[in-house]
Amino acid sequence: MKIALIGYGKMGKAIEGIALQKGHEVILKIDQPNLNEFTKDNLSKADVAIEFTGPSTAYENIKRLIEFGIPTVSGSTGWIEKLDEIKNLCSEKHGAFIYSSNYSVGVNIFFEINKRLAAMMADHPTYEVILEEIHHTQKRDAPSGTAITLSDQILEKIKRKKQWVNELSENPEDLEIISQRIDTTPGTHSVKYSSVIDDIEIIHTAHNRQGFAAGAVLAAEFIKDKKGIFTMKDVLNL
């Protein structure tokens, strides 16, 4: 499989390493110094593009890739208010697109556990729920995309919570997300239900970027030669 990497920071390099280990070829690496090479002609040689950039550039990058007709895997966070626009464009162009706030296999299993636990806790208002996410100091968005996904899943099941907030709150309708940025921490997410009697807590702790990179390559393998809009649930058959 021939892969184009859009974004060649730490995640891009980790994805490249996994892709090469699996026998794939990285034919194009786009980053700030060579944006002039982000062209339809160059991308036409790729079977799939993997996009990991930042909140300010992701939307335009993904839009261009879909307009170029390139199956696209995106893991950029901080831009998802425009996700529906991208999905509509993908449908209009009969393209292929996967977005996930986190490509780690473990995190996607964690998502499924979170949904199940939230459904079970919905009828137990004596338990208060709070989320915490910890990442490295270079992460530019807060809360993390993973924390937002976890929060949205909880809000869907627990109707007494109306919206998430990225701070402590005295409003019982707020779902609190506490964000911390600590040196080189790859990523920790916890969801905690607390009552006067006991606590119930689920935690996912990433030890490095390899899990995210491996999942992104897995998604690229899945989407090659496909048409449509997919999620990691499709990739992992969850």
Q: What's this, in brief?
A:
The chain is elongated. The strands form two sheets. Strands 2-1-3-4-5-11 form a six-stranded parallel sheet, sandwiched between helices. Strands 7-8-6-9-10 form a five-stranded mixed sheet. The chain is built from eight helices and eleven strands.
Topology at a glance:
Layout: E1 2-6, H1 10-21, E2 25-30, H2 40-43, E3 48-51, H3 58-67, E4 72-74, H4 83-93, E5 96-99, H5 105-121, E6 128-135, H6 145-157, E7 163-165, E8 174-181, E9 187-194, E10 199-206, H7 210-223, E11 228-230, H8 232-236
Helix pairs in contact: 1-7, 3-4, 5-6
CATH topology of the largest domain: Rossmann fold
The number of helical segments is 8
Q: Give the name of the CATH superfamily of the largest domain.
A: NAD(P)-binding Rossmann-like Domain
Q: Beta-strand percentage?
A: 25-35%
Overall spatial form: elongated
Q: C-alpha Rg, in Å?
A: 19 Å
Stretches where pLDDT is under 50 for at least 5 consecutive residues are: none
Architecture (CATH level 2) name of the largest domain: 3-Layer(aba) Sandwich
